[in-house]
Amino acid sequence: NTTNTTNTTNNDDNNPPCIPTIPAINGAIVVFAKVPHPGTSKTRLSPLLGADGAASLAQAMLSDILICLSHCSPLKHTVKVLVYAPGTKTAESKLVSILSSLGLDYHFLNEREGRVAEGKKEEQNENENVDLEIHPPLQTTS
After folding, report:
1. In angstroms, rounded to a whole number, what is the distance separating the alpha carbons of residues 36 and 53?
2. How far apart are CA 100 and CA 6, in angstroms?
3. Is 116 exposed, middle or buried (0-12, 13-18, 19+ CB in 10 A)?
4. Over the stretch 16-43, which tens digit does the pLDDT of each residue have?
5. 11 torsion bin: left (phi>0), alpha (psi -120 to 50), beta (else)
6. What is the pTM of this model?
7. ω into residue 16 within 30 of 0, thus cis?
8. Which is nearest to 62 in space by CA: 42, 89, 46, 44?
9. DSSP string of 8-25?
10. CA 23 vs CA 8, 18, 73, 74: distances in Å
11. Per residue in 46-92, pLDDT tens?
12. How far apart are CA 34 and CA 16, in angstroms?
């Protein structure tokens, strides 16, 4: 008598169907993403979709993964960090706009800050901590 305990789809109403059943996880999940921008996102699809369409698709794909991770019950107590590129104020504004429109609570860090911190880490004693300025989650109203 064998019982299959593996469930690759999750039919729980609290989880999107794209997330497999997994045990609860504490700690952090880091998502690395390029901020969608016309002319630089999904460029191979630009001839078919146009630059704006390709950027919209990139934003939809990023939004889907961020929503899935945010609504996954086993990840409820997991810190979610979004590392984005390019590390510009324009990209940060776009990212803040995306996160706000989705009502998601992600910490975020631009890739430039991460590179600077990595360089500092090499210069420091291994027992010293590197201070990263990880932006706290946006204050969203639900």
Report:
1. 11
2. 35
3. middle
4. 555 555 566 678 888 999 999 999 999 9
5. alpha
6. 0.67
7. no
8. 42
9. SS---TTS-TTSPP----
10. 13, 15, 9, 6
11. 999 999 999 999 999 999 999 999 998 888 888 888 999 998 889 99
12. 23
Pairwise CA distance, residues 129 & 83, whole Å: 19
Amino acid present at 41? S
100: how many CB neighbours lie within 10 A of its CB? 13
Q: Which residue has the tokens 């960090």?
A: 81
Question: What span, in angstroms and rounded, lies between the C-alpha atoms of 14 and 35?
Answer: 28
Q: How far apart are CA 95 and CA 89, in angstroms?
A: 10
In the chain, the amino acid numbered 64 is D
Residue 117 has pLDDT above 90, yes or no: no
Strands 27-34 and 107-110: unpaired
Please give the pLDDT value at position 130.
44
Number of alpha helices (DSSP H) and beta strands (DSSP E) in the chain: 3, 3
